[in-house]
Amino acid sequence: MNYYTKELTSKLWNDFEAYFNYQGKCSGCWCMNHRLPLGLDIEGEPAKLAMKQLVESNRVFGVLAYIEGDSVPVGWASLDRKKTLPGHDCIEENINCRSSIWSIHCLTTRSDYKNKGVEKVLSNAAVELAKKLKANEIESYPEPNSKEGISFKTWNTFNGFQSQYKDLGFISIEKEYGSHSEFYNPMRLFLEIDIPNLKTKRLRLEPQNVEHAEKLFKPFQNPRLYKYIKREPLVRADQLREGIKSLDNRMLPDQSEFCLNWVLINEENNEYIGQIEVSMPVNESYFYLAYTIFEEHWQKGYAKEGCKAVINFMFKEWNASKAIIEMDIRNTASVKLAESLGAKQVAFKPKAQMLKGEWSDEYVYEVYNLSS
């Protein structure tokens, strides 16, 4: 069938209204339920008026599906920032998240077009819209093991099929959802993760890529940089290039952790100063912070300057709850740096790891996002 889609805008309110009024089949929610905190559901005319106001102010995102020869849309997929959906069973307390996470939280079709391919068209279109909106992660919440052509086993009939999301590359989120597990199989798709250049008074922090490898290789050969860490000095330039390239998508290959790395460059003369690394488990709100300043730039305040910029970015744009910094207790420069950033010591780990033939004791420091 010749389906096509249109992105919802204020000009399409009449089409949206026609879809939800079609043969009186609307449940009465008008796609408002997830937008309000649990327990504050509205239905019928109040819900319709509230949605109309949102649509006419272009504050609702999604796609309508059509078929040639029929003026009434045949399907609807709602796509919104996860943090704006406190009324969804799978979101609730998790709304304090990055604004770049979007959710396909409603995907329905007209009764006369169920299981006729509309769901697949809508999910494809919703993913494309998410890319346009600069999302770096999309979530969906289909019924477990649901497939086109097979009847739903629960009341979760408004999220499409698990099989269609799997075909698009979505993977199940490994998280316990308690009593909701029977009804939902939350899934996610990671898109291109874009991090910006950051600037300080003296530095330009560029997202690390393979083009930086050539200028990073020589300073990373200095053995004094590795005195208190488990890594060994680089011996081949291709080691560095391959390592950077493996993190091109800003994630570990198994998609368990975000890896956001910046190269510190002197804004005045373009000299390479060092590197800052962020690793953040995908299901957590905290991140680990690591830093390397090349020897000729030690004791000049560059580490503090760069780390503050990265921490502020992670707190503001990624809604991180805290930064964790771990260091060998003998690394007094790193201890002073952590304390200068406002970090508090929260743990002492004796014999944390074997380092250069002897046990390394470690301190754990944390910086908290007081606005989260």
Please characterize this protein's 3D structure.
The protein has 372 residues and is of the alpha+beta class. It has two domains: 3-190, Aminopeptidase (3-Layer(aba) Sandwich), CATH 3.40.630; 198-368, 3-Layer(aba) Sandwich (Aminopeptidase). The strands form two sheets. Strands 8-9-10-11-12-13-15-14 form an eight-stranded mixed sheet, covered by helices on one side. The chain has eight helices and 15 strands. The radius of gyration is 25 Å and the shape is elongated.
Main attributes of the structure:
372 residues; alpha+beta; Aminopeptidase; 2 domains; eight-stranded mixed sheet; seven-stranded mixed sheet; 27% strand
State mean pLDDT (0 to 100 scale). Answer: 92
Number of helices: 8
CATH class of the largest domain: Alpha Beta
| Strand elements, count | 15
Estimate nothing, just give the exact number of structural domains. Answer: 2
Q: What general outline do the C-alpha atoms trace?
A: elongated
Helix content: 10-25%
Task: Indicate the proportion of strand residues.
Answer: 25-35%
User: How far is the first residue's CA from the last residue's CA?
Assistant: 48 Å
- Give the neighbour order of strands across the main sheet: 8-9-10-11-12-13-15-14
CATH topology description of the largest domain: Aminopeptidase
From N to C, what is the helix and strand string?
A: EHHEEEHEHEEEEHHEEEHEHEE
Q: Taking Cα atoms only, what radius of gyration do you get, to the nearest Å? A: 25 Å
Q: Can you identify the CATH superfamily of the largest domain?
A: Gcn5-related N-acetyltransferase (GNAT)
| Structural class by sheet pairing and helices | alpha+beta
Biggest β-sheet strands, sense, barrel: 8 strands, mixed
Q: Label the CATH architecture of the largest domain.
A: 3-Layer(aba) Sandwich
**Unreliable runs:** none
